[in-house]
């Protein structure tokens, strides 16, 4: 644990030392890898776009507000029944791309899944896309994540490293707790997990299971999209309390085993 923490601190110091010289923290090959990943997503989106019928697609953009989302929903409803595969593939590519590169707005994509596909299919779609995107971010962070994480979250990264080291015996329960509750941002967990040596199978399992409750809340709200006035309406006190209760249940075995030892 001490070696990993020292490594993070050393990397942080190097970043500060080099700030007067080259301010960009990535090497040429790291940038090349990131650009190749971006290119693959662009090719996927282009393929979906070319298979859709000729029409005006000026409405296609990442939603940044509930108004944008409602416009997108109204237009996509016309295509979902006739071009289900294209809409599904396009949705997955966009969602995974946003998760991979930490682009804000996936909550709007989750709402859209509920509006277009209903609760059961919507939750399955969101959980699959979110898990795939988080996994993609995990592996990309293995290559280029450390300098970025040290720049963005230096103290939080050391805190997370300490928590992971202390809970090695019940790491899955701890990661489940983090996924279910808003204790740490999901973006930070995706980037930092490979840096602090969270095994991928634990990361994947905790992500897949832990995102289900929040996905259900958001997708269900998407069905009544017109009734939402703000994103704050998504998580009322009861919803947040329920998520924390699930989180406490998930981490209880770890706390009990720690007390016994």
From TrEMBL:
<protein>
    <recommendedName>
        <fullName>VTT domain-containing protein</fullName>
    </recommendedName>
</protein>
<feature type="transmembrane region" description="Helical">
    <location>
        <begin position="237"/>
        <end position="256"/>
    </location>
</feature>
<feature type="transmembrane region" description="Helical">
    <location>
        <begin position="31"/>
        <end position="52"/>
    </location>
</feature>
<dbReference type="InterPro" id="IPR045014">
    <property type="entry name" value="TM41A/B"/>
</dbReference>
<feature type="domain" description="VTT">
    <location>
        <begin position="103"/>
        <end position="222"/>
    </location>
</feature>
<dbReference type="Pfam" id="PF09335">
    <property type="entry name" value="VTT_dom"/>
</dbReference>
<feature type="transmembrane region" description="Helical">
    <location>
        <begin position="115"/>
        <end position="140"/>
    </location>
</feature>
<dbReference type="GO" id="GO:0000045">
    <property type="term" value="P:autophagosome assembly"/>
</dbReference>
<keyword id="KW-0472">Membrane</keyword>
<feature type="transmembrane region" description="Helical">
    <location>
        <begin position="198"/>
        <end position="217"/>
    </location>
</feature>
<feature type="transmembrane region" description="Helical">
    <location>
        <begin position="83"/>
        <end position="103"/>
    </location>
</feature>
<dbReference type="InterPro" id="IPR032816">
    <property type="entry name" value="VTT_dom"/>
</dbReference>
<keyword id="KW-1133">Transmembrane helix</keyword>
<dbReference type="GO" id="GO:0016020">
    <property type="term" value="C:membrane"/>
</dbReference>
<keyword id="KW-0812">Transmembrane</keyword>
């Amino acid at each position: 644990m001490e070696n990993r923490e020292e490594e993070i601190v050393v990397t942080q110091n190097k970043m500060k030392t080099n700030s007067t010289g080259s301010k960009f923290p990535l090497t040429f090959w790291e940038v090349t890898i990131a650009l190749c990943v971006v290119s693959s997503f662009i090719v996927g989106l282009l393929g979906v776009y070319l298979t859709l019928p000729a029409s005006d697609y000026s409405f296609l953009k990442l939603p940044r507000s509930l108004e944008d989302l409602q416009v997108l929903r109204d237009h996509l409803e016309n295509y979902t029944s006739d071009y289900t595969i294209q809409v599904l593939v396009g949705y997955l590519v966009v969602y995974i791309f946003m998760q991979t590169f930490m682009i804000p707005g996936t909550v709007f994509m989750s709402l859209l899944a509920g509006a277009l596909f209903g609760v059961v299919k919507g939750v399955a779609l969101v959980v699959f896309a979110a898990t795939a995107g988080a996994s993609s971010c995990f592996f990309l962070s293995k290559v280029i994540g450390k300098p970025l994480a040290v720049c963005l979250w230096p103290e939080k990264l050391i805190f997370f490293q300490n928590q992971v080291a202390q809970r090695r015996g019940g790491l899955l329960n701890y990661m489940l707790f983090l996924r279910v509750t808003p204790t740490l941002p999901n973006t930070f967990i995706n980037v930092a997990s490979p840096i602090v040596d969270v095994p991928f199978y634990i990361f994947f399992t905790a992500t897949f299971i832990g995102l289900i409750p929040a996905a259900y809340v958001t997708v269900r709200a998407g069905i009544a999209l017109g009734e939402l006035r703000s994103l704050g309406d998504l998580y009322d006190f009861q919803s947040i309390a329920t998520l924390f209760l699930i989180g406490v249940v998930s981490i209880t075995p770890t706390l009990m085993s720690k007390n016994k030892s």
